[in-house]
Structures are given as C-alpha cells and as structure tokens.
C-alpha cells in the first residue's frame, strides 16, 4: 500500500546540512496499522511528511498503490493527496469555521457535489461522535474533540490511507485512549491503512500491528509489535519497551541477589504461559525462582507479560533452566539495571 | 444660542455638506482601488517568501523594495512628485479625480503591508493540512489565508482608512476639497474659527466612529 524506497532527506539551513532521513525503506501493507516510534529529532515527522510529499525527499521514491508519487505532475499529485488523509498533533482546524464548515469546506474545494457534502459531513460527524457540535467553533472544543473533528475531516474524503503525525501527543491519557480506539475502529470498519508516528510506546502497544524504530534518520529495528516487545535488539528499542514496564529492582537488592544466582527478564505472549513455566522450573530443576517485578499488558491482539525473576541455584543448573524456558517460547534476557537515561 | 446655530448652518451648511461628500468620495474610491491592488500584493509578499508556495527571491525583494520606497515618501511630497503619472492615468491632476491616483499610490503599499502581516499570522499548520488534502493554492489563499486572518484584515483596513482620511486633508492643495481643506482654508487662512472647530469635530466623530466600527467587526469575525 505505502512503499518508501531508499528515502533520504537533507535540510540545508545556512551552511549546515541536516540529514533528517538517511536511506529509509518502509513497506506498509494494506489494512494495517503501522507505527513509527523514535525519540524527538529522529526524523519521524519528516518521514510521514514525505509520504504525501509535504516534504519532497532529496533522494528515493514514494509509492502508494504502486503509483510513484515522486514522479507525478503537480496536478496529479493533488488528486492523489485527496485519497491520503492526514491528522496532526496541533489539529490544524479553521478557527473561523464551525465544526460543520471545517469538514464541508475542504470537500467543496475538492469538488464533491453539494448534496453529497451534507450527507458526508453528517455521516462522519456521527462516526466521531460529534453530531451535537456541528455549529460549534473549534475554540470552544476540547483537544480530544478537535482531534475528532480533524479525523472526521480526513475521513470525509474517504481516503485509503491515514497518516497521523503525533496525533495524540497533545492529549491527556484518557483522551489519548479514546482517540486510539477511534483510530482502531476506523481501521477495522473502513479498512483504512494507518501510518502513525509517535514517541510513546504505549500508542504502539495499543493499536499497531507492526512497528519501526527510528534513530538519527534511519530505521534501526522493525517487525511485528509482539516480536519487538519480546526480543528487542537495540538499546533504544529496549528502552522503549522498558518505558512501559515499571520493573526496576532496587540496586542494593540486585547486588545482594546476584551473589546467589542470576537475575533474568522473562517475556512471554499470552497471560498463562509465564507463571506455570516458573512452577515447572522449581519442580524439574534445582532452582528457586522468585518474582521480583512483573507486569502483564495488553498488546493489540494478545496479552504480553514481562517478569523479572531471580533464579537461585548453581550456574549449570541455571543454564539448563534457561534453555528449558526458551524451549517453552519464553524470551530470556539477563536483567540490566535501568540507568536513568530517560525518554525525552 | 439656537439662533446662532441656525445662522451658522445657513451660512456654512452647504459648504460643510459638500466637503463631507468630497471626503467620502475620495476615501471610498481610493480605498476600494487600494484594496484591489494591496490585497493581491500582500498575498504575493507572503507567497514569494522563501519556502512558501511561490518561492521567488527576485519578486519578493523587488516588491519589498518598491513598497518601502513609496512608503518612505510623505503624502504631500508624493502628491507633487507623481504629477506626471497622475496626469497620464487620470487625465487631470486637479479635483477629486486628480487626487485619487496619489491617494491610491500612497495607500495600496500600506494595505499590502497590513495584509502581509495579517496573513503571516495564519497558522502554518492549517495551510499544510489543506495542502495535504490536495487543495489548490488559490483556494488555500482565499479559504484559509484570507478567511483566517479576516479579523486582522478588518482592523488593518480600519487603520488604512483613517490614514486615508488624514491624507485627503492635503488634497485641498490640488483643489479636491473635503473636510480637511475646508478647515484649512476657512479656519486657518480666513480665521473663521467656528468653521474650523466644526470640521475638526466632524473629523473626530468620523475617525472615532470608524475605529469603533472596525473593532466591533473584527471582534465578531474572530471566533476563538
Ligand atoms: N524544515 C526543516 N529545516 C531544517 N531542519 C529540519 C526541518 N525539519 C526537520 N528538521 C530537522 O530534521 C531532524 C528530524 O526532525 P523531525 O522529522 O521533526 O523529527 P521527529 O518528528 O522525529 O521529532 C531534526 O534534526 C530537525 O531539526
Ligand atoms: Mg515530530
């Protein structure tokens, strides 16, 4: 559906050149919710903006439905953009227009027939749950309501793709939840492919099928969300996963326990597989496992759990136990004390 | 008292009335033409900026320079300075007709600047959202830029109109009449103090009324 090939974007400010994107490939399948996560300045916004060519890449090609956008004329590009919705962190609504006008004006300007405009506005206001606000100005709406209007505005063009640039970053946690649910609903009901960027792992966890992690203009890791959660490879990804689980163990305790056996982090998909495996461990091996911290959280389609466990026992026995756990499909990693290099 | 008032009206009423009409004519016509020229120039000033839709260094710098040059010249000098140009455009350099050209040359660049600053206030994000929806640049100009800044535009036009009223006071020098001219000729040159007071009073009322009207309109158009 969306295919980016070797996208590079360099910004020139004065004499310095910033490479915001450095050879990024991305492939988003139809009907998927694809997340791109990274710290501030990683190049996420630039990336999502190259998809509809708000930012023209210095190098590389952008395809949507196998049509190369980078090769289209200005007129054709405008037509294609009408099928690509976009929502923003700052909502970007007309202050001088009512909710109704905010949805209707762009429809009118893209040549939707008058009669159809009215029915479309009603339909999509209904979907985002704001029928009763149609004559209200954005100044009188909450952040979440504004984002709903922006979503209705995008949907009213009946797009195939929806791009979201930090769409929930300006919202409080509850509102974020409700907007994420709305996006998920849109994805399921209309089959709209969603590419969203965020700096919050929570967003990825809640609604994404797949995710790419960005750093310094490159994608450093990508895959199914479950895989990234259970086997994060890069330190950045590990830190993002860590940010969801408050499973820090006090330093003194770690020092004390490590003299009597290894501390490991176990990750498992599905709620049931973790604890029974630990029970088997103490039965089959000369090991006393004790849980130091733990958390089970809901990924988009399945629960995912992480336990920090102390395995008290001999080294060889511990090694065998770890192998046993891995055979059961449980991710095992040495516990690393989280240093306070925190998320910006 | 009332005898004096009716005597004054008998004596000066007609002159004052025609001066009011002349002022309104000069202001109305030149404001209209100035907006027609100034609004597009203001839009051009915004769009030819680096990074904007019609990014064009040469046009931007040229336009900027021309506007600055004209705006540096006081109206009274401009009035005489461009006499040949006025003659060429209007066919005459005297009367209301002869003063419209210099008034427009004086006001249009001012309005262009006011438009420019009003349009620059519009949130870049909204423009971007409309670009992302595949909407044509000319539609974005009207339906986003001008629409979103209409409150500031009205305030700017109010200021421009008041400036115009001030400039018309000097139009008497080319025989165009108006309230300013009346106050100057009778009040100053012939020392008819009453006439001067009344015209000055009328000018104050006019300017006050205009500013209040502009403020109310601007507040109404603003929706946040
Ligand atoms: N228009 C621009 N001009 C110059 N530099 C830019 C521009 N946009 C982004 N950058 C730079 O590109 C890098 C990536 O920015 P961005 O894509 O906004 O990151 P993110 O969205 O991940 O925070 C940053 O270093 C930023 O300063
Ligand atoms: Mg960003």
Question: Which labels suit this protein?
Answer:
A: 344 residues; alpha/beta; Rossmann fold; Alpha-Beta Plaits; 6-stranded mixed sheet; 4-stranded antiparallel sheet; 30% strand; disordered C terminus; B: 224 residues; MetI-like fold; 0% strand; binds adenosine-5'-diphosphate; binds magnesium ion
Word description of this protein:
Chain A has 344 residues and is α/β, with parallel strands linked by helices. Chain A has 2 domains: 2-241, Rossmann fold (3-Layer(aba) Sandwich), CATH 3.40.50; 245-334, 2-Layer Sandwich (Alpha-Beta Plaits), CATH 3.30.70. Chain A has 12 helices and 14 strands. Chain A has helices at 44-51, 74-81, 99-109, 114-127, 143-155, 173-190, 201-207, 225-230, 235-242, 251-258, 274-284, 315-327, and strands at 2-13, 16-28, 33-38, 59-64, 67-68, 84-88, 161-165, 193-198, 210-215, 218-224, 261-269, 288-298, 303-312, 331-334. In chain A, helix 3 (99-109) runs parallel beside helix 5 (143-155), helix 4 (114-127) packs across helix 5 (143-155) and helix 5 (143-155) runs parallel beside helix 6 (173-190). Chain A is elongated and about 75 Å long. The two termini of chain A are 32 Å apart. In chain A, 41% of the residues are buried. Chain B has one domain: MetI-like (MetI-like fold, Orthogonal Bundle). Chain B has helices spanning 2-47, 57-72, 75-81, 83-90, 95-120, 124-132, 137-148, 150-168, 179-189, 193-221. In chain B, helix 5 (95-120) runs antiparallel to helix 8 and helix 9 packs antiparallel against helix 10 (193-221). The model of chain B has no long low-confidence stretch (mean pLDDT 88). Chains A and B meet through helix 2, strand 6 and helix 3 of A and helix 6 and helix 7 of B. The site of magnesium ion (MG) has 3 residues of chain A, from helix 1.
Give a quick rundown of the structure.
The complex is a heterodimer of chains A (344) and B (224). Chain A is an alpha/beta fold and 344 residues long.
